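# step 3/5: fold
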Amino acid sequence: MGGIRPATRDAVRPADGTGSRRAVTAALMLAMGLSALDSTIISTAVPQIVADLGGFSVFSWLFSGYLLAVTVTLPVYGKLSDTFGRKPVLVVGAALFLLGSLLCALAWDMGSLIAFRIVQGLGGGALQGTVQTLAADLYPLKERPKIQSKLSTVWAVSAVAGPGVGGALAAYADWRWIFLINLPLGAAALWLLVRHLHEPARESTGRPRIDWAGALTIFASGGALLMALVQGGVAWDWFSWPSVTLLGTGVALIAVLVLIERRAAEPIIPGWVWRRRTIAAVNLALGALGLLMVAPTVFLATYAQSVLGLAPVAAGFVVSIWTLSWPVSAALSQHVYRRIGFRNTALIGIGAAAALLFAFPFLPYPGEAWQPMLLMLLLGAALGLFQLPLIIGVQSSVEWEERGTATASILFCRQTGQTLGAAVFGAVANGVLASRLGGAGDLDAVTHSLDTGTAAEPVRRAVADAVHAVYLGAACAAAVAFVVLLLVAPRRFPVLAPGGSADPRSKT
């Protein structure tokens, strides 16, 4: 591989032992928290932003633009971290994220704010992928569940707390503080990384060859496809010319990307990502995870408020309850996969998740709040048992110079699955509503009528049916993940020895 690589394949190490590793871990948690918080913090401040800047017709791009930028940059940052090292990629990404945050706070209209949110997303892609990769570099296999559970906790808490923090800042300060608050936190993370993280000396293997054509094609193809998925059925009809044009362009660019990557000396998305059964199976399984996560993260709050009649705060607690059991289950998963292996542990987790998602439509109507809360608590435990062993299994099956690319590929698939799930399940929910109500209707309009007290009981039942259909779809996604792991993934994941060679005695 052209470029530079570490003097040893054992990865990054802090310079001063345990104390420095704790400092670097704190920096990683801060970076992960910023990335997760920024995905949701704007949601409750939209009215204040629109009142100040205008642009109501395009405000959804505050979310879509950030999501697109994060998703399409994940593979690029993964490859760059394998080529140049984790530290420079993470430092540059964090700096870009902070620059975007500062520019967002200075935005003068909705167009400039959307553009600066995309700048934020370009840095956010580096935060998400490189943080996960560095966590695997810093900790040996037996300690990785501990750091990964910490990162999962930070992600979950930040994502759930985002709307509340954004609403409080918009109400009692100014919406611009939503972005300014990133600056001191991000600066602290940057200082800790620069001060305490030191990568081993690298030996040159020639001038690095960067696949710029592949990177640009990834941006273009991913942007076209994700834009079609995000805006289809929202800004325009699914079968309108914008959707058809974007989807057709995205598919054509994917074909071009395949040709470019086959000829590139150092492709951004190398073929081994899909030729190795372990990584290919995990990519597909975590893509299905992204799909099924849409049900609880997007639709459960609507169910809690519209069907159960809960206030927004109580509904938020119903949604967030699974974030309590997920990191605990993830941390304890090591005691399971050390005995039965990564794949079998993940099979147990996703099998239980499929059963729980399938059980949701059978809850009594209207029911009590504790019933979906119990299911979500158990679902978090099941998914913690599913996701973490797969991530650790993939990271442990590749050498240092492949770990960034492998980690980015599975995160990219999960993120793409969530985008696809939001589009598909949104269409499913709106279709069920239209069928039950005997005409056109969409979830946003119906839930608004419920909030204002103008909707009748049949409308509440229609919302319940729509969310039930989404959960059945999520259960099908979990079943697909189960089948993929059962048929595609190897029974025992190969685990590389610290020097980078496969040890036949080390398979999990």
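# step 4/5: annotate
The beta strands are 4-6, 13-14, 197-198, 202-204, 494-496, 502-507.
# step 5/5: archive (pending)
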